[in-house]
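Possible regression after last week's pipeline update?

I re-ran a chain I had predicted before the update to compare outputs. Posting the input and the new output here so someone can diff against the archived version. Not blocking, just want to make sure nothing changed silently.
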Amino acid sequence: MLKAPISPYVVAGRILSIIGMSFFTAAGILFCIGGFWFWGLGALIGFIPFFALIVAVERYSTKHGLIGPEPDPPFDDE
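New output (post-update):
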């Protein structure tokens, strides 16, 4: 049995969160390497909303049955 297709909003949320987490993490690391500690800390704090977004999107997907294990089919005893 096939699952329902994933909503475009779920896909967009996943893409946006991955891009945001990647950008802010990379910027934070580069700022810290360059000695700009406060800018680096600010960029690493900017990671948090995008992490929260991916958590929310994945919980939504799991709750609505878009991801996860498929339910077992009912058994016929006849």
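Follow-up from reviewer: compared with the archived run. Helices lie at 8-34, 37-45, 47-63. Marking as no regression found.
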